[in-house]
Amino acid sequence: MLPRNAIAIRKTLGAATRAKIITAATNKTSTATLLDYPPGAYTGMRTFDKLGIMDFTGHTTRLANSLQQIHFPGQGAETSVVDSSVEAAAATKGLAPLRRLEVMKEETMNLVKAGLKFYYKNRTDDVLGSADETKVTVLCTWDPENQEPTLIAHFEPLKTPTTLRCKVEVHGSPRHHATAKDSQWVRDRRGLEASLDKDSNEAILVDNSTQDIYEGLSSNFFAFDRERRTILTAPLNSVLQGTILKVVMNVCNNENIPVEFKFPNLKEAHEWEGAFITT
After folding, report:
1. Which CATH architecture has domain 5-157?
2. Which residue, 25, 49, 243, 267, is most buried by CB atoms nearer than 10 A?
3. For the purposes of burial, counting CB atoms within 10 Å of the CB of 58, is it exposed (0-12), middle (13-18) or buried (19 or more)?
4. Gene3D superfamilies per the record (predicted)?
5. Does 124 score more than 70 pLDDT?
6. CA geometry: angle at 7 spanning 5 and 8, to 5°?
7. Which fold has domain 168-278?
8. 214 and 174 in contact (C-beta within 8 Å)?
9. End-to-end CA separation in angstroms for the chain
């Protein structure tokens, strides 16, 4: 079978050295590609009208902010998202430009442009003439072996829901550092993903002691309180704020729908008119 997906890699970055962007076809998924590289800051984007990226500035801001929180102790050590004192000096120096939003935005834009051009050119089907959009996953990490930053983008067809409803399971506990989008989470959540039933779409993370609902493995969770006619969702500093969450906030603001940043609670599910996830 011919490869359907694509990757674009830019390994050496900075004002002094300009590295060539390398593009290639691949059969690997975005998840498999993330697992091929050391943990680092990542984000998942989607195209609109094939060539635009939804909330591109928001995604690059997330990358830069996450990279500021994630630290790279050096070869053979695990990624830390807390203690900056353990970061290798070479990583601090090499990643400094990419921790600035304006540099991250420019470098990511160049990478995604090159990758999308290659992806559309090499698709065997007429993706530009279809309704299909593209999922773009970007990872920025530190290569301890070559002592340089790695910036990579992966391109694959965006999956569209086949039904208006989805099934979720209550699994696991809230993650420790939700505000940093670290690809280590892709590794950590594999056990939960493997335990899901075949017809389940997502696992919802809940505090077992309080029954407060935080978020999904890769989604934000919302409930609609029937009596108060208010949308409930977890406090923003306790979850990763997805791009579509901001879209929901804009819609609610335009339609005068109240939103309360309060944990939906499983014990109060009988008080909801409905619930939904966004990703």
Report:
1. 2-Layer Sandwich (3.30)
2. 243
3. middle
4. D-amino Acid Aminotransferase, subunit A, domain 2
5. no
6. 150
7. D-amino Acid Aminotransferase; Chain A, domain 2 (3.20.10)
8. yes
9. 29
Residue 86 region, left (φ>0) first, then alpha (ψ -120 to 50), else beta? Answer: alpha
Neighbours of 77 (CB within 10 A): 13
Q: What is the pLDDT of residues 240-261, one digit of tens each?
A: 888 889 899 999 999 999 999 9
Phi, psi for residue 72 in degrees, rounded to 5: -120, 100
Distance (Å, whole) CA 195 – CA 250: 35
Q: Say which amino acid occupies 10.
A: R
Nearest Cα neighbor of 261 from 204, 215, 227, 201 is 215
Query: What average pLDDT does the segment 8-15 reach?
Result: 69
Which pLDDT tens digit goes with each residue over 81-113? 555 567 889 999 999 999 999 999 999 999 999
SS (H, E, C) the chain: CCCCEEEEEECCCCCCCCCCCEEEEECCCHHHHHHHCCCCEEEEEEEECCCEECCHHHHHHHHHHHHHHCECCCCCCCCECCCHHHCCHHHHHHHCHHHCHHHHHHHHHHHHHHHHHHHHHHCCCCHHHCCCCEEEEEEEEEECCCCEEEEEEEEEECCCCCCCCCCEEECCCCCCCCCCCECHHHHHCHHHHHHCCCCCCEEEEECCCCCEEEEECCCEEEEEECCCCEEEECCHHHCCCCHHHHHHHHHHHHCCCCEEECCCEHHHHHHEEEEEEEC
Q: How far is CA 148 from CA 11, 13, 62, 75, 101, in A?
A: 7, 8, 21, 12, 19
